[in-house]
Amino acid sequence: MIRLREFIEPHNPAAARRSAETLKKAANLLLDHPAIGTRLEDREDRELFIPFGQFGYIIRYRLHEGTIVILRVWHGFEDRSM
Fold first, then answer.
1. Which residues have a Cβ under 8 Å from the Cβ of 55 and sit 6 or more positions away?
2. Is residue 7 helix, strand or coil?
3. What domains are defined for the chain?
4. Can you tell me the mean pLDDT for 1-28?
C-alpha cells in the first residue's frame, strides 16, 4: 500500500491520503468478513475490489490457518499479469 501512496503523492497528496485510508478500511473489513472477496477459479486466493476513483483497487489475499494473508494490492489500471 505504501508503493501506491508514494506513486500518487507527488501528483495529488490529498488523493494519496484518501487512497491509503480507503485501503486500510478495506483491510479492516477483511478482518470482520474474511470470505467477502471473490474466490479465484481453481485457487485458494480471493480478490476484493475496492471502489476508489475511476479504476479502484484490488486486494488479492488468501486465508491460511485462520490468518488473512494479503498477497498483493493493485490499482485497477495496473498490469496484473505479474
1. 75, 76, 77
2. helix
3. 2-75 (3.30.2310.20)
4. 86
